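Lecture 7 notes: from sequence to structure.

We start with a single chain of 678 residues. Read the sequence below before looking at the structure.
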Amino acid sequence: MLRSAHLFAATTLVVAIGLAACGSDTSDGAGSDPTKGPGFGDSNVDPGAVKRLFFDPPTATVTIDGTNPQSASYTLKAELGNGTVGDVVAEALQFDRPDLAKLAPGNPVVATAPGPFGGTGKIHAVYKGQEALAELRIVVKVEYVDPSADPDGVAALKGSPLAQDPKLSTLLYPYDKTVFPLGLASPLVMWNAPQANDTYRIHFDEDNYSFDGYYKVGALGQQRVEQAVWDHVTASNGGSPLNLKVARYDAAAKVAYESASQAWKIAPASMRGAIYYWTTSGGGHLSKIQPGTGGTPVQLGGGQCMGCHAVSADGNTLVAAVENASVNRSWVSFDLPGATPPATLRKDGAEFGANVAVNPNGKYVVYGGGPMHIADTFSGTPITTSGLETTPLDPGMKILTHPAFSPDGKHLAAVQSSDTWVSWQDSKLMTLDFDEATQVFSNPKGLVGSAAFPATVRAIAYPSFAPDSQQIAFHVADYATGCNATGCDANTKDVGAIWMQNASGSAPIRLDALNDSSLKAEDHNLAYEPTFNPIERGGYFWVVFTSTRDWGNKPEVSGAANNGKKRLWIAAIDKTTGATDPSHPAFFLEGQELETMNMRGFWALASCKSAAVSQGETSGGTCAAGFECCSGFCDQGKCIDVTEVACRAIGEACTETSDCCNSPSIQCVNGKCVSPVH
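Now the structure, written as tokens:
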């Protein structure tokens, strides 16, 4: 299905067959104006007589300020087999981007763009079995002057050209070349301000949208553009780079400068799903957050202390090692319904959990501190014939730990440890095949081992399969977990980086852009515990991970790189990987508890609200914040979808008639949109 199932589903405008005034000549047309042929206005024109249908003009561009509507007009013309051309009124009319503009039928056809989105769409008209297409491009140019901004500074910043700023040339956050999905909070742009109370211009531009915002900024050097602006500029992105330019007006010197610039990529999809993570907030418990605007943590399990945990890819099952259960730190399974309460007890396994994994549909859990076992999450019954307990290990290895299922449920990744289930250095990544029907593990395969890494940073830990069930991300650190020889508390320091290896056994790749996103060298090699979103979104894989890097100059996430500064970050990974780094710079997951340790995020699918079925719909798809919507966008209390065209043209692929522009006049036959009139 296309966006016809969403709020901005186009409404086909069916109008009576007719014509605009084409003249009153009733002769045989010899020597007359070919645009005014005889009898051309007759509604009984033989369909086969129409040779060509076209719009004049074929393209138009309107420029809007994000608030005031602008219109463009198109005349629909038909050419008959004898060369006669005349104006006609469409039998059916549809615009495939009704989130951008609305059509008024007739001749001319009038397309009105109300704002605030930019982009390009096509008008589809049908007359006598022929289809005509016209393109409408909407360009948005928005200016905002904050009341705090110095008027002299605003005027100076509008001058051109500006000299390069001698005191500011780079940003602390976000990072250059970051890939952002749709539906996130407007990123907090941060820099080291040369002085307080200078006026800044924050400029965004892409193919169909530009924004200039003017603000007075304090000594810390932080500024967000308004959330509505961020939503509109990202929703308007058609694949071109989103360029950021920061300019500064030095209030003391009375001079305006160009300061810093970056270029970002906007992925055409929200990330979807929910992230489950451990936090020290309130003494230590699991929380759930759905990335997106307005997303806030939801406490799980009544706040009881849970440590190691895993969530099924379908988002229905949580398994965690729970303190003070029937056996201390035994594995316990929970149902995760979409409504309150956020987690209800399913089964106390009554066996020590250690690090756990749960298969995609939540039926089976792998657990144990050595050897590992598998059990049914509903009954709690261990399965003793799986072969997991007897998996052969390499010489020098003692146990198998840190299990993780692939999204397709057919494989298990784990780590061979040379010590305990919680602490080791020498280690090896491995995979096993899993047959859910028989609950049997087989075909153990060794992958990269510690010998491939430096002697002081070689502990392999926390594997996670990408959505393709082939790529495996893991971290390599000086110690496997946040525990080292000196302790296991908030002051414990660790260094590490995230790598990725194909299950085929190809050479592992260090994710340099993810690990070393910051321009500050002291923020490098501080990435751990990766977990992939189980589905690809917007052409990318998405990974949530823990890092002890600074978040720009936010005081709550600055200072010593120790366990106490662990927070959740997200990065995009290219779907197609080879021998080069497929990662992109990371961004901070906003909405998580800001002042407490947050770590070990697990990504799973979660319920969300689809956009309403049509523009006139008054129920369904209601929302208060963007994270509630599958698209990531909540506009005036409704979930909206701005990521797909609403319909397909004649000749394009379809799965059902409603996929076609101007259905049911145009029908889906043998996988293509066709006109039944010939």
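Residues 57 and 74 are 6 Å apart (CA to CA). Keep this in mind for problem set 3.
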